Known about the structure:
The protein is of the alpha/beta class. Helices cover 28% and strands 22% of the residues.
Amino acid sequence: MSIYSLNKFIEELIKSDDIIIIDEPVDYNLEITEIVDRLSKSNNHNKAVLFKNTGTNFPLLINAFGSDERMAKALQANSLDSLKDKVSEIISLYTNKPENVRQKLGMLFDIAKIRKWIPRKTTRKGKCQEKVFETVDIQLLPILKCWPFDGGRFITLPCVHTVSPDSGALNIGMYRMQVFDNTTVGMHWHKHKTGAKHYSEYKKLGLKMPVSVTLGGDPVYTFVATAPMPENINEYLLAGFLRNKPVKMVKCITNDIWVPEDVDFVIEGYVDPSEDLVVEGPFGDHTGFYSLTDLYPKMHITAITHRKDAVYPATVVGVPPMEDAYIAKATEKIFTPMIKFALAPEVVDLHMPIWGVAHNLALVSIKKEYQGQAFKVAQTLWGAGQMMFNKTLLVFDDNVDICNYSEVTETILKNLHSPSQILFSQGPIDILDHSTNVMGFGGKVCIDLTKEDSIQDRNDARVELLFHYIDSEKNIDRSQLDKETSGNKSQIVVVLEPELESLSNGLKIWYLLNNIDPQRDIEIRAENSNFSIIIDGRKKRHNRRWPNVVTMDKETISKVDKKWEQLTKLPFIESPSLNVAKLVKTKGAETNGH
Length: 594
């Protein structure tokens, strides 16, 4: 199977009955989000959606990567697990010494094949330049307003191309883009991202920064834009590896940046570092909370080109699970062998559960050979690329299936014997994390759950897991908590607001991990041979603004309720927002009383 455009990808999804096509008009302000949110969280009807009538000249494809099967199809893989095998095979070229002439010749052939992954430039006009907007107007695209308190409409799947003025290296990143007017958009790159680094380089030189943004094309382009590639390594080299053929690149018409010739849209322009930063946001983010307003650069659009058959790609993020979780899962499969090869050879597997929204929770299994090895792995990973944003790291023996959450839970309760198994640290934290006292910097925790040979398996040594529900405006009564939790067993005590009590364990974990700074919010109390670990996962009152949980408004929910079966031809699915609406106590993206 070969997929080199969104239209061909759509054809494949139609063949596998994995897409819903909606011909009736649907508003790109909120309604599309509400429809997709219901489907993405459905056990039986999680499908991609093609909205043909968007009120513009372009159809909109969404939730295209929102399952393991669709993600594998997008990357032309039999399964996501096969991606790990493919990467491991390439790594073996560098780690296995050939033993005979035949193996040496085979290795030379494989190395020659690697050269074919390098992007190739063409002087011909690309498919992405078949049509040129006569008047630059970004609002002619069906750009979504995703959630009620978003600051406006946002481009949500942009592949942002920038070039370092110092090294000439091309970077492709994915940074949401808020539409300000017909010709300007926000550029939401965080200080840790390569795009922000390029911006600083241009600012020092006093030069305008060329930027080109692509949308669509081969689905592999969207994936590699999200991949945590090492700096100065072209993301399209990874695309060439996944496709086993080079990406053909064409020069933009109003700047000198090169982009894939077969994408659906190209938005060309520049950022002027001499201009004042502008207010961007809020935005209902992948954490499930709003990211609040902040200052970011503004991009001026100089041209918009597109294919004749262009399809506008979009995604919606919010309370998990949503489409981004499956993109992250593919990344996890591809980069685990690289982590094992380049950083920590004892790592057997790495898994980031969807409830941890990528950076909040990572589970690692290792082949343990000595005491303290789990902490060594944690500190290695916290110093590696985007793993530096990880906040909670749990390390297990290699015989534990870290993708089996029942087994993971059982191992935690069985293997946690002492506070000495817990390591606290601090360092860079994702900018979108609202829990820390200082934006972008906070606490981390690693728990060593590998088995100690000196400790015998005893059922009575199991740790108890307890939940307490206390309003966020109230202080924890330590004496009362001690009285309620006193006993002959060690305990993990999770404190949440009363509104969380009826929610699923997954949503409780999601809420807890978003709201803690481990150094501040995890307290360990030891008494005789027992201990208690108290984790305060409630909203905090500190000097930072605290965001609201992302939910849909009642009016939009009602509109979609009334036309659900007509639009989707599916049985009625209730709005997921109704499940978490109780967590929202104030109107707006930001809560009060912080």
